[in-house]
Amino acid sequence: MTRIGVVVFPGSNCEYDALGAVSALGAEAEFVWHSATHLDGFDGVILPGGFAHGDYLRPGALARFSPVMEAVAEFARAGGAVLGICNGFQVLTEAGLLPGALQKNRGLTFLCQPTTLTVESTASVLTRDAFRGQELVIPINHFSGSYTCDDETWASLVAHDQIVLRYKENPNGSRDDIAGVSNVEGNVVGLMPHPERAMSTLLGSADGRVLLESFVGAPVGAR
Asked: Which of 15, 16, 83, 187 pairs with 140 at a CA distance of 20 to 30 A?
């Protein structure tokens, strides 16, 4: 059985959603407190949404210094599957595990709404079971969710097929409609929308399932 660790920072508030979602897909999931120094025995790690360390300074800027982040970096270097959702995406960029940065939304408006995403790449642990061009309805819930990067970084993302998801209609001003990116190897992925909140049509959409099924089933080092 796949074993998934869900990292909990002071201020995380989506950890139960993430744990429940991957557990419903058959994974053995457990919380990992931010002071942990190793991730031994896990097949995948999720950094969930919320307000890590209160988002003081800027989102993710303090969480990157939590002891667990060195363990996450080591886990990623070894080919382990790492997923950052919303605030978790912000943490991964602050820690240098993903390129670019997240800034305040266009219009300085907090957004909480369904969005339609387009799968742009299947070369990642999050999208390997989807298909290019597939449209997914996944909710967003953020204030600092506008993806930004310099021209050189953007060109590299395109060249290495690292843009995994785009917004069909850009809600927040993200560069090139980017909703999610991966590292070059494809084992570390971050996205602003919340797939763990799109697991059932009773709640509006089950389109998050294909993403989390991909992640739960991803073999170590897969791309």
From this structure: 187
